[in-house]
User: Fold GreA/GreB family elongation factor from Streptomyces sp. 900116325.
Amino acid sequence: MTGGPEPISDVAREALERELADLRTERETVAATLRGGERVGDMADEADELQRGTELDRLDTRITEVEGRLREAAVAGHPRTDRVGVGSTVTVRFADSTEATVQIGEVAEVLDRTVVTADSPLGHALLGCRAGDTVSYETPEGRLTAVVLSLGDEGDRS
Assistant:
C-alpha cells in the first residue's frame, strides 16, 4: 500500500456499496430493538440490551470504515494501468507456463480465487511492477517466480 488514497476496481466498489447497504439495514433492525433509556426488566433483559448495544457499536464502526474507504477510492480515481497497484488487474505467467489473471485487492474474497491481497507474497511482489517485469516471492512451498504479461484494461474483469 502506498499510504495515500488507494483506488479500487469497479467490482470491489460495488461489493463495498452492497456491504454498506446491508450494514445500514442491519443497523436499523438492531436499533429498533433498543429500548432507549427505559427501565429494563430482569438481568437477562439487561444482558440482551447490552449485547444489542455492542452489536450497534460494531455496525457503526464498520459503516464508518466502509464509507471512509469509498471516499478514499473516489479521491484516488481509477486504478493505474502503467504500474501494478491496489485495484489493478494483472495477467501473469508462472514458471510452469500457466497463466492467471488476478486482481490486487485489499481483502480476499472467499469465493473469488482471482483476488490476490496486496499484502500476500504474490500481491506484494507485484506492487509497482510493469508489464514485462519478473517477480520472485516466497511461499510455503519455496521461492516462486512470475512474469507480468499485462495489466489494467487488457485483462480487466470489472
Remarks:
- Residues 10-76 form one domain.
- The chain has two domains: 10-76, 89-154.
- Residues 43-76 form the longest helix (34 residues).
- The beta strands are 89-94, 99-105, 115-117, 134-139, 142-151.
